[in-house]
Specification:
Elements: E1 8-16, H1 21-34, E2 38-42, H2 55-66, E3 70-73, H3 88-96, H4 103-109, H5 111-117, H6 120-138, E4 144-145, H7 154-163, E5 167-168, H8 176-181, E6 200-201, E7 207-208, E8 213-214, H9 224-239, E9 246-249, H10 261-276, E10 280-281, H11 284-294
Parallel strand pairs: 1-2, 1-9, 1-10, 2-3, 4-5, 5-7, 8-9
Antiparallel strand pairs: 6-7
């Protein structure tokens, strides 16, 4: 699809539409200075409040689009189990960060209700509501999706296909990174062989573009080097593969403000990528187009 000598680097960032918009603008300023486009997975109705009722966020997202960034769909109201079951390491992280709300216990306690919530019809309804908000408020027709907490199920892909969203980026290549988020630094990159780091046809005809990892989850300055080492390991391994794409996950509020050590990590990672390979900084919408060209529909 794309030669390893021109590997796409896709910087993605989650949870726009919620939280402190000033931190989002700080990230936009950083990406402008670095000359890197971002793909912002945006919550249409964060915490039950529609995007239309958050004018400061509407303005910020319009700024993002005007500066060449990509805006795509990230759940509906954004709960950890909204569109499926999180991976085990994500449940571990939810428990680590839970302040008393254990991810594993919540899964077991609410399993019966969750099974109903994960029915295709229910998932399709939430997707349709989110897409309508994007159309009405942003004038955007989303072509890609990422599930909150990367929690998916087979019915989600069926629902995505039915509403016309042909790309997902919820599956994770390097789960070791989430152990780093829990301050467990003893392991090196270990990829999940089910998810090659490139766009490929997945369930129900939806293309999957797996994300590599989260490298900037509330870093301290002293932790930048160890997280950067992991990011470089992942980048080097991907750059050696034909057709690979390096999709990095981040969260604007966990890498700006008092946690802006995350910006330093990306400043150094962008420089490393430019030095080591002829990367092309792209958006997920760009990669979706390339995937369709590489895998034309069969009749």
């Amino acid at each position: 699809m794309v030669s390893a000598q021109h590997m796409p680097f896709i910087f993605t960032n989650d949870d726009a539409g919620s939280g402190d918009v000033r931190l989002f603008h700080e990230l936009l300023d950083f990406l402008r200075d670095e000359g890197v486009p971002g793909t912002f997975f945006t919550i249409p109705c964060a915490g039950g409040v529609p995007l239309a009722d958050r004018p400061e966020w509407v303005e910020a997202l319009h700024r993002a689009r005007e500066e060449g960034h990509d805006v795509q769909l990230h759940g509906y109201v954004h709960t950890g189990f909204e569109f499926g079951r999180p991976p085990d390491f994500m449940l571990d992280l939810m428990s680590y960060m839970s302040e008393g709300r254990d991810g594993w216990a919540a899964l077991e306690r609410n399993r019966a209700q969750l099974e109903r919530d994960w029915q295709r019809v229910a998932l399709r309804e939430r997707l349709q509501k989110g897409r309508q908000i994007f159309r009405d408020v942003l004038g955007v027709e989303p072509v890609a999706f990422r599930a909150p907490c990367c929690a998916t199920c087979d019915a989600l892909y069926e629902a995505l296909s039915e509403v016309g969203i042909g790309c997902d980026s919820s599956q994770i290549v390097d789960g070791i990174a989430w152990e780093y988020c829990r301050k467990e630094f003893g392991k090196h990159s270990a990829w999940d062989q089910r998810y090659p780091p490139r766009a490929f046809p997945f369930t129900a005809g939806v293309f999957e573009v797996p994300l590599m990892a989260e490298y900037t989850w509330y870093l301290t300055p002293a932790e930048v080097d160890v997280h950067l080492r992991l990011a470089r390991e992942d980048f080097d391994q991907a750059a050696a593969m034909e057709g690979a794409a390096f999709v990095a996950l981040s969260h604007f509020y966990a890498m700006t403000g008092e946690h802006r050590a995350g910006l330093e990590l990306y400043r150094r990672l962008f420089a490393y990528a430019r030095e080591k390979a002829a990367v092309r900084f792209r958006t997920l919408a760009d990669i979706t187009i390339l995937a369709r060209e590489a895998y034309p529909p069969t009749v």
